[in-house]
Amino acid sequence: MPKGTLREVKMEPSREMADRLDTVDELAPFRKEFNLPAGVVPLNGNSLGPLPAAVPGAVAEAVRQWGERLTRAWNEDWWHAPARVGDRIGRLIGAAPGQTMAGDSTSVQIFNAVVAAARLRPDRRVVVADAGNFPTDRYLTASAARLLGLEVVEVPMGDLPDAVDRHRDEVAVVFCPAADYRTGELWDVPAVTRVAHEAGAVALWDLSHGAGAVPLWVDDDGVDLAVGCTYKYLSGGPGSPAYGYVAARHQDRLDLPLTGWHGHARPFDMAGVFEPAPGVARARIGTPPVLSLLALEAALEPLERAGIEAVRAKTVRLGDFFLGCADRLLDGLGFEVVTPRDPRRRGGHLALRHPEAAAVMAALKDRGVLGDVRGDLLRFCVNGLYVSFGDVHDAVTALREVAATDEYRSPRFRRREVVT
Amino acid sequence: MPKGTLREVKMEPSREMADRLDTVDELAPFRKEFNLPAGVVPLNGNSLGPLPAAVPGAVAEAVRQWGERLTRAWNEDWWHAPARVGDRIGRLIGAAPGQTMAGDSTSVQIFNAVVAAARLRPDRRVVVADAGNFPTDRYLTASAARLLGLEVVEVPMGDLPDAVDRHRDEVAVVFCPAADYRTGELWDVPAVTRVAHEAGAVALWDLSHGAGAVPLWVDDDGVDLAVGCTYKYLSGGPGSPAYGYVAARHQDRLDLPLTGWHGHARPFDMAGVFEPAPGVARARIGTPPVLSLLALEAALEPLERAGIEAVRAKTVRLGDFFLGCADRLLDGLGFEVVTPRDPRRRGGHLALRHPEAAAVMAALKDRGVLGDVRGDLLRFCVNGLYVSFGDVHDAVTALREVAATDEYRSPRFRRREVVT
């Protein structure tokens, strides 16, 4: 590694070691609960988790309900699905029931949450936010701020406490991600939440790259509002509904801009004026995409059964093994590890910088190793629920072969795809 | 009929007549393209269209793509699905390609459209809107107006031209539904659009209860912006994604509040500042719910093949037959027809007022006749694509039996369900 500090590796990172670790891995049986395609090393679960084996049947059942029960299915099952799925996600992020609602896209949830968070501090005009947050978070924060006449102060996470302090009496909202979408670096949710609260601000978190990868404790940490995506570590499927968390103490004065009729206190009264439902039900918006929502519900089951702590522990071991393999196999090939080596500061994916990241990833994909690219970073997700140590060894070995032979310089890996 | 004016019925509304009409119905074969449950009369397609026979396979294929192709499916199929499905919906509403985008819920589309419409007239402060529009339209208009500092003037459709005239130089947006969600009354899209334009305002339409039921010509009518729902007359499935239409002439200065990363000019550059994509692509928001979106896509095919004009013509005949049956069978039983008898003023559903509408509908459902209730109105959808004349006769006969025998007064039909 040219720039990373070499970390003492307690095991010899080899194929034999990978096989040995897989043999003793108590979570190994969970791999069979995902329909992984043959010949593929699935290290892109930070972008789209693989298909849980229970999902095809659950989706077929949802389609059957539609066909056979028609509108009657709303009363029999569907109407309560957003709250039911929300509560199940809530358990994974440390939220007691009645505070998490599933629905809509992460972008929509972000807009709703930023406006509502700012309205909890109507006398304050500043949002302090992570400058490294995922772009859609930044775009929607800017849009919400423009509508409300707020100033957005974007700073790197390291400078955030100072920035909050500088704007101490003006900060309405502090908005950060639980993990950096580029490097996988884990941020300190309780510490930053305390910083926000000490300044009298509301703490809003985007849990997209944290939930399902690491245990979160939004209730214990005093988080005010949170949003998150479900198609990464929750394997809910492409574009599966996002979720919003609203701490119970804020619910009854939560003033959301997306006042859809499903969030009305009595939606079927068809009243002319919006009256928010009690509790987190007001965070419902329009009719949820039921097929995608019920796919997500079925997807949660393996993670719930394995337990987030066990998955996290294995993810840490997989990350250590990845770094060990990288140190041994990638030395001198132009890669730089940008994810913290301290596992306490690492989420579910690791990132390597390479000047030709896109071409390297295209060559990797050609060999069946799936990761993704953000700028000059190659990202590899080591989700302990279904990734094996063998996968990690195969991926780093492929990386070595692609880079050492200049395979990635082939013109066929130069084509730009829409989604990278 | 106690209050409606009796209309001359050119046919004797009987079971025999229904069978004869079904025998000569050229659209009758399309009924087989929907998986209708046995023993059910499906007159609630204005709430949730039935399951098209092609959908289970299409959804299974989308799940297969997820499982086998993982993120690669984004480039192979999914990324372009919102525009592709949008264009197909566009053809059904008279929009040339490149102006319609599928995604998100109708509520979210409404918010986005109201804000963007108002921003097209930044020097004006009034929104004139139909006071009888669907509640979520009214709630989100109020929310958008609050954020932008606009005044909302809600009036019945009949008073709308006068209201626009009264606020002539201040009206930014005129927002109306293509059809009244309660009575099914069809509004005059070109005439109201002209009224808006003559006052210098932007015309925004909610096509939810019109698209798929009646031919619409948004391009020819000069509509500026439109939104719509796809799970009613487009049979896209529970909570299938909605759509937004933006006339080409407005696209490049359309300033949407929901600036999700999928609407960015170069989403995978991960830039820090939102730069809207050219054309209607800026109306994308977050990651769309792919399973629900691809179900919708498959659902459109039978309607496209039958042709909206043919479906409309049969829907008119079904409506005439419904009214003929109602006049003959429901006289003196406390029902009032509130849908216009003139088929040119009627959309895809008919509404009967009854003081015990909820109980009557519960008793009807118990007999397998599915309609729905809004307040004291019973709604029955006569979608020509899959409803038969026999269905209509069965439904009105059941209505007669339920009302004439006081069956609906049974305590078991008093239970309030969440979704009515």
From TrEMBL, chains A, B:
One of its GO terms (biological process) is L-tryptophan catabolic process to kynurenine. The modification N6-(pyridoxal phosphate)lysine is found at residue 232. GO terms for cellular component: cytoplasm. Its EC number is 3.7.1.3. GO terms for molecular function: kynureninase activity; pyridoxal phosphate binding. InterPro entries: Kynureninase, PyrdxlP-dep_Trfase, PyrdxlP-dep_Trfase_major, PyrdxlP-dep_Trfase_small. Pyridoxal 5'-phosphate binds at residues 106-107, 134-137, 206, 209, 231, 261, 287. Keywords: Hydrolase, Pyridine nucleotide biosynthesis, Pyridoxal phosphate. Pathway: Amino-acid degradation; L-kynurenine degradation; L-alanine and anthranilate from L-kynurenine: step 1/1; Cofactor biosynthesis; NAD(+) biosynthesis; quinolinate from L-kynurenine: step 2/3. It catalyses: 3-hydroxy-L-kynurenine + H2O = 3-hydroxyanthranilate + L-alanine + H(+); L-kynurenine + H2O = anthranilate + L-alanine + H(+). The keyword Hydrolase applies. The keyword Hydrolase applies. Its cofactor is pyridoxal 5'-phosphate. Catalyzes the cleavage of L-kynurenine (L-Kyn) and L-3-hydroxykynurenine (L-3OHKyn) into anthranilic acid (AA) and 3-hydroxyanthranilic acid (3-OHAA), respectively. PANTHER family: KYNURENINASE. Homodimer. Belongs to the kynureninase family. This is Kynureninase.
